[in-house]
Amino acid sequence: MQCRQPSLEGTGEVPLRRLVKEALRMRPSRIIVGEVRQAESLDLLIALNSGLPGMCTIHANSAREAITKMCTLPLLAGENVGSRFVVPTVAGSIDIVVHAALERDGTRRVREIAAVPGRVEGDVVEIADLFVQRGGQLVRADGYPPHRERFERAGYDLPALLAQEPA
User: Fold this and answer.
1) Integer angstrom CA distances of residue 99 from 81, 96, 117
2) b/e burial code for range 1-15 (CB count within 10 A of at least 16 → b)
3) How many whole angstroms from its chain centre is CA 33?
4) Which has the least CB within 10 A, 48, 90, 98, 103?
């Protein structure tokens, strides 16, 4: 499904928010949104909060800033949407954030992978580092993702995935 700009007459626009809602009506097994920038993040969060697996891309400078942005963007959906709803929903709906950055040579590399344990402290969503970059290498950190059963249901052995392999 793809967005469409309005015609010269101002008709025929298909915004991303409408596409997310339409996709949910199709009873998908997962939802993937290419990039969230505005109020469609609210609809995505509601879908993820209902147990539907999914993912999206978002522009941010770090995993922490991506979570902060996901807490801010849904507020664009309207005055009746407040941070008291959004922040705990982000904490409960997002499991993992993968931060990729553009390197000097023009390649994209994963800089960090962080887990979202689901805890909120004073309107700040807690994150735990799974993998961080040290000395140009992505190395295992101390964090552990929440909801181990979700990974097992999807057929993934989480301890094996997180095991630090010798280089």
Assistant:
1) 27, 10, 17
2) eeeeeeeeeeeeeee
3) 10
4) 103
**Over 60: is that where the pLDDT of 26 sits?**
yes
The pLDDT of 3-26, averaged and rounded, is: 89
Considering the segment(s) 16-162 as one domain, its CATH architecture is: 3-Layer(aba) Sandwich (3.40)
Question: Is 79 buried (19+), middle (13-18) or exposed (0-12) by CB count in 10 A?
Answer: exposed
The token duo for 56 is 């999206």
User: The tokens 């295992």 sit on which residue?
Assistant: 140
State pLDDT tens for residues 46-66: 999 888 899 999 999 999 999
C-alpha 123/C-alpha 71 separation (Å) is 9
Angle between helices 40-49 and 16-25 (to 10 degrees): 20
User: From its phi and psi, is residue 141 left (phi > 0), alpha (psi between -120 and 50) or beta?
Assistant: beta
Helix residue ranges per DSSP H, the chain: 16-25, 40-49, 63-72, 83-93, 148-153, 158-162
Tell me the two tokens of residue 87. Answer: 């922040």
Q: How confident is the model at residue 165 (pLDDT cuts 50, 70, 90)?
A: low
Write the pLDDT tens digit of every residue in 111-131.
Answer: 999 999 999 998 899 999 999
Instruction: Give the pLDDT score at 94.
Output: 93
Domain definitions of the chain by residue range: 16-162
